[in-house]
Amino acid sequence: IDQLLIHQKVELVEALSGFENNNKYEIKNSLGQNVFYAVEDNDCLTRQCCGPLRSFTIHVLDNFGQEVISVIRPLNCDRCCCPCCLQELEIQAPPGNTVGYIIQTWHPFVPKFTIQNEKKEPVLKLQGPFCGWSCLPDIDFEILTLDETAKIGKISKQWTGLLREVFTDADNFGVQFPMDLDVRMKAVLIGGCFLIVSMLLK
């Protein structure tokens, strides 16, 4: 697999009431076939009070309902003016077996992240567009080599239309990576999609 589409399911009750629900996602391959489902897990108080900063665990399930990936995000800050308490994720595949981390790197204008392996050794970089990125209709986060000289993939938010953008927090995200990339790093980059979703949509 070298490409996946992550589709956030529309929550009509949330759109009408403004009451934040746990997010649910369908993950499809390039042929449009469902390969995974993902469900956010946290409590009601956290969702309502912390919004986009909230901690969560996302359970990624295969078509048989077996959990294959856990994405764990602690409660942290997301402001570019504050270089402490930045975003981080731990990705486990299968649950209980850490395969990598995504750690935000402080930068005043550009969202930057380091992709680490299970030993917290840097492997790849992830970089978004210049400040103001959350307002753009289509957004690309480039997956870069560690020295940032070559682009090897991307995580993209795709415009879904005015009504859906305004009245719901549902979006489509795609992730592209090399076919021969280590499967553990693919799992980490799937986790990266959920971090970007949480940072962009609220």
Could you walk me through the main structural features you see in this protein, from its secondary elements to its overall organization?
The protein is α+β, with helices and mostly antiparallel strands and 202 residues long. 19% of the residues lie in helices and 38% in strands. The chain has helices spanning 12-17, 44-50, 162-167, 183-201; strands spanning 3-8, 24-28, 34-41, 56-61, 67-73, 88-92, 98-105, 112-117, 122-127, 139-145, 151-158, 172-176. Strands 1-2-3-4-5-6-7-8-9-10-11-12 form a twelve-stranded antiparallel β-barrel. Strand 7 (98-105) and strand 8 (112-117) form a beta hairpin. The radius of gyration is 16 Å and the shape is globular. 30% of the residues are buried.
